[in-house]
Design goal:
The protein is α+β, with helices and mostly antiparallel strands. The strands form four sheets. It has a four-stranded antiparallel β-sheet with strand order 5-4-7-8. Strands 6-1-9 form a three-stranded antiparallel β-sheet, with helices on one face. It has a two-stranded antiparallel sheet with strand order 2-3. Strand 7 and strand 8 form a beta hairpin. Helix 2 packs across helix 3. The longest helix is centred in the middle third of the chain and has 13 residues. The two termini are 18 Å apart.
Length: 179
């Protein structure tokens, strides 16, 4: 596929994950939903789920797998920067590598239509929540993008131009924007 596909749509869930240690409870590392900064209005409009309701909650498991193990497996099979579990977790926590699925380095669709997370509130109450993966135009999310077009020939021409490159390092376009 031409590189331009990932500059039109992105799959996402709205969460920014964080990690902390809870020495008082004997846990090594706790993964939690730190924020919901990734197009929360678009997500709520599409799903009816207000992402802000889950901010601050501990993520006990994702799709039936303990969270740290789930992110470890995700990193080892999808991120592939190197063989380091800590580097992979860093990408999940600091670069939205799990939450956003469309860029030069994370251009793959989610493995399932939704994630089922067991979450725990600060008072210890557990809830199971289902979060659908949704797709939105990158432009609606304020991300670098190329314009979508209804014209197939125009789309193919834009995607195959050799004078338009995208720099993954700087996140900027080099040369002419195709559309």
């Amino acid at each position: 596929q031409p590189n331009c596909y990932n500059f039109i749509l992105t799959g996402f869930i709205p969460f920014d994950f964080g990690a902390t240690k809870r020495f008082s409870k004997g846990e090594d590392l706790v993964i939690f939903i730190e924020d919901a900064p990734i197009a929360p209005d678009i997500y709520e409009d599409a799903t009816g789920i207000d992402p802000a309701d889950f901010v601050g909650m501990k993520v006990v498991s994702i799709n039936g797998v303990p969270t740290l193990d789930y992110f470890r497996e995700f990193g080892n099979t999808r991120i592939l920067w190197d063989d380091s579990d800590s580097t992979h977790l860093n990408h999940v926590l600091n670069k939205w590598s799990y939450s956003i699925r469309s860029s030069n380095t994370h251009d793959f669709a989610p493995e399932r239509a939704e994630d089922v997370m067991v979450l725990e509130s600060r008072n210890g109450k557990r809830v199971t929540a289902t979060f659908p993966w949704i797709f939105a135009r990158r432009s609606a999310m304020g991300m670098s993008h190329i314009a979508a077009t209804n014209d197939t020939a125009e789309f193919i021409e834009a995607c195959t131009r050799t004078n338009w490159l995208y720099s993954a390092t700087t996140g900027s376009s080099i040369g002419e924007d195709p559309l």
